[in-house]
Amino acid sequence: MAKGDDIQERLIDFAVATIKLCSELPETSAGRHVAGQLLRCGTSPAPNYGEARGAESKRDFIHKLKIVLKELLESSVWLKIVFRADLLSKSRILPLLNECDELNKIMQSSLKTVILGKIGHFGKNC
Fold first, then answer.
1. Structural domain for 71, as ranges
2. Which of 101, 97, 19, 112 is nearest to 65 (CA)?
3. Distance, CA of 98 to CA of 81 (rounded, Å)
C-alpha cells in the first residue's frame, strides 16, 4: 500500500457514507437543502486528496490539502445541523460526525507537518 492510500480509502468511505446518509434525509424542503449541501462538501475531500497526492509542488500540495480540510470542516457543520435539527437519529449521525472529526485532525496534522518542512517529496506518493 502506497503512502496516503489509507487516508484516501477513509475519505472515499466517508464520501460513500455521506451519500447514504443524505439519501435517508426527509423529503422536505429542509431535508433536500441540507442533503444537497452535505453531498457537495462530503464527497469533495476524497477527489481533492487524490489531486493533492499528485501535486506538482509543495505549494500546490498545501493548497489542495487546505481544500480537503475546508470541505471536511463544512461537512462537520452540516452534520451538526442534521444532528441538532433531529433530521435523523443521533445514532445514525454520530459515527459519520466522529469520522469527519478524525479526518479533520489528520488533515490538520498533515498540513502542519508539510508546512514545517518535514515532507520533502511531492507527487503520487505524498
1. 5-115
2. 112
3. 14
Residue 120 belongs to some domain of the structure:
no
CATH number, position 109: 1.20.1440.60
The predicted model scores a pTM of 0.89
From first to last of its 126 residues, what are the pLDDT tens digits of the chain? Answer: 677 789 999 999 999 999 999 999 999 999 999 999 999 999 999 999 999 999 999 999 999 999 999 999 999 999 999 999 999 999 999 999 999 999 999 999 999 999 887 655 554 444
Q: Is residue 75 part of a domain?
A: yes
Alpha carbon distance 58, 126 (integer Å): 10
Instruction: Give CA–CA dist 95/92, Å, rounded.
Output: 7
- Outline where 1-126 has alpha helix (H): 5-24, 29-43, 45-53, 58-84, 90-115
C-beta of residue 68 within 8 angstroms of C-beta of residue 45: yes
